[in-house]
């Protein structure tokens, strides 16, 4: 289940620097973002990454994810699994209303969810929308009464709660441009390719935001986003550009790192005769992820050993010591697998039963993306690390389309690429035998059983336990290597949030209560 957003390009007029004290936002401020694809306000069909952060300040959902990445009630005050997790009943709050003052009812939730499900199940369209993964979890949705919504699940699955983060709009406006929402802000102005303005929602059902207006200026390239900040055109910017790391927190600037859902991985072809479990583990032991993060990404990435973000409840930290860089252990594993440098040329070799000598040489491919043009540099650094234990690699850069062909055909040994991970913590799509994202051709009946078992757990405790077991087996089998999660930066002359888990797609989370928090 992969969730992806189209990358965009951005344009801005540069003005002289006008430093602002990094104390508080005040009543209004201006943010520069990258946006060229958005021609209308369509919260269900976002096409610009940063627009999702804007939508999340305008449209609310049944559930939100707190700083611990745990589901908490938003429009829903409570929920209850029934029939052993096959149904989920959500009870709406009594005081919720849209920005025009009309009450939010179960029919609005049903219409919003059904719109997403209809698109997700439409085989005649290519783009099924940002929230289309709801279709993997939900069979049907209905209103029991004005304040009760019932979801029939495709499987008894705790993960369904993470999909309840879709926007809710009036039933009559689900297919309209610029539908109204219920969040702390409303969109009062929008000009495609130019700018947008949020103003506080005077009918918001919570405490009124003290930040009254937020202006957004659209830029057409990542460089122009950071330039707009450098030349004082805006008070803040959202950026994943590595060049943004030059801006450090100081008297006139605040840098807040945020985590993205982009997981960089080193895919290893498990069908390759050279890439036995021992060799795969040896590769894992020799790669220094932190060194790559520091030298290639300038720190704008977070090393991880599993398909989950470190420090969260779903990450198995107890297993981290087994991933420590250990070149001696790598050499021991390679020797145990029969590899030696018999001709002393620096490259390992071994002789098969027929007396044929083969070198440990791997085909290593890498593809670049518009906002990740350093991946080839990372691949070359990995190749240098492997060479120190006698593994030879030929690194070839290529387009994403060509890399996909290599992955589909299995004509590779190593590929450095990335997954866009779904909001729901479920790695089954990359680990289950024969699944869509299992590019490494990993075949483990036990892992498939664990992933299937995960999708039958409808309690938090059971769900978390299965995730721990999945990571234990992942560490043992080493089907591929999780490298790091890409990070981004919010560059700002003003603090605007007290949230400690700043996440992509939710970069405005907390702005509505920031001034209130400071006044407490």
Which helices and strands appear, and what pairs or packs with what?
Layout: E1 28-34, H1 51-58, E2 63-65, E3 71-73, E4 76-82, E5 87-92, H2 106-120, H3 134-137, E6 138-145, E7 148-153, E8 185-191, E9 195-200, E10 213-219, H4 222-230, E11 236-239, E12 254-268, H5 277-286, H6 289-295, E13 301-303, H7 327-336, E14 349-351, E15 357-359, E16 361-367, H8 375-387, E17 392-398, H9 400-409, E18 414-420, H10 428-431, H11 445-454, H12 460-477, E19 480-492, H13 514-519
Parallel strand pairs: 1-10, 1-11, 16-17, 16-18
Antiparallel strand pairs: 2-3, 4-5, 5-7, 6-7, 8-9, 9-10, 11-19, 12-18, 12-19, 13-19, 14-15
Helix pairs in contact: 5-7, 11-12
Number of DSSP strand runs = 19
Could you list the spans in which at least 5 consecutive residues all have pLDDT below 50? 1-22
| Rg, Cα atoms, Å | 25 Å
Give the rounded overall mean pLDDT: 91
């Amino acid at each position: 289940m992969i969730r992806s957003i189209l990358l965009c390009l951005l344009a801005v007029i540069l003005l002289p620097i006008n430093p602002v004290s990094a104390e508080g936002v005040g009543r209004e401020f201006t943010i520069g973002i990258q946006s060229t694809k958005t021609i209308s306000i369509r919260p269900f069909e976002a096409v610009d990454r940063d627009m999702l952060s804007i939508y999340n300040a305008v449209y609310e959902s049944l559930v939100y994810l707190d700083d611990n990445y745990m589901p908490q009630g938003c429009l829903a005050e409570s929920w209850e699994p029934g029939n052993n997790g096959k149904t989920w009943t959500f009870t709406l709050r009594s005081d919720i209303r849209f920005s025009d003052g009309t009450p939010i009812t179960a029919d609005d939730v049903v219409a919003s969810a059904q719109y997403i499900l209809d698109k997700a199940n439409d085989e005649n369209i290519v783009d099924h929308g940002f929230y289309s993964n709801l279709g993997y979890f939900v069979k049907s949705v209905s209103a029991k009464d004005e304040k009760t919504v019932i979801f029939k699940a495709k499987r008894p699955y705790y993960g369904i709660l993470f999909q309840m983060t879709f926007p809710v709009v009036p039933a009559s406006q689900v297919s309209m441009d610029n539908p109204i929402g219920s969040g702390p802000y409303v969109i009062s102005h929008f000009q495609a390719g130019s700018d947008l303005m949020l103003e506080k929602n005077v009918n918001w059902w919570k405490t009124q935001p003290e930040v009254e207006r937020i202006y957004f200026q659209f830029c057409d390239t990542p460089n122009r986003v950071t330039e707009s900040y450098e030349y004082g055109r805006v008070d803040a910017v959202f950026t994943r550009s590595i060049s943004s790391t030059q801006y450090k927190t100081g008297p006139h600037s605040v840098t807040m790192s945020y985590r993205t859902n982009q997981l960089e991985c080193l895919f290893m072809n498990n069908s390759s005769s050279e890439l036995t479990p021992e060799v795969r583990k040896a590769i894992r032991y020799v790669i220094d992820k932190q060194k790559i993060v520091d030298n290639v990404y300038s720190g704008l990435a977070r090393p991880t050993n599993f398909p989950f973000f470190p420090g969260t409840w779903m990450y198995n930290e107890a297993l981290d010591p087994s991933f420590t860089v250990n070149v001696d252990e790598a050499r021991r594993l390679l020797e145990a697998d029969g590899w030696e440098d018999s001709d002393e040329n620096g490259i390992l070799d071994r002789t098969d039963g027929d007396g044929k000598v083969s070198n440990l040489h791997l085909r290593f491919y890498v593809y670049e993306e518009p906002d990740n043009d350093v991946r080839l540099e990372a691949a070359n650094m990995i190749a240098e690390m492997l060479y120190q234990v006698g593994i030879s690699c030929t690194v070839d850069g290529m387009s994403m389309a060509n890399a996909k062909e290599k992955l589909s055909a299995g004509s590779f040994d190593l590929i450095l690429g990335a997954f866009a991970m779904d909001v729901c913590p479920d790695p089954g799509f990359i680990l289950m035998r024969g699944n869509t994202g299992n590019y490494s051709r990993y075949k483990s009946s036990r892992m498939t059983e664990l992933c299937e078992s995960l999708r039958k757990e409808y309690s938090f405790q059971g769900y978390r336990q299965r995730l721990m077991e999945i990571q234990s087996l992942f560490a043992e089998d080493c089907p591929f290597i999780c490298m790091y999660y890409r990070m981004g930066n919010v560059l700002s002359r003003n603090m605007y949030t007290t949230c400690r888990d700043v996440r992509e797609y939710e970069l405005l989370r907390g702005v509505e209560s920031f001034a209130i928090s400071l006044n407490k």
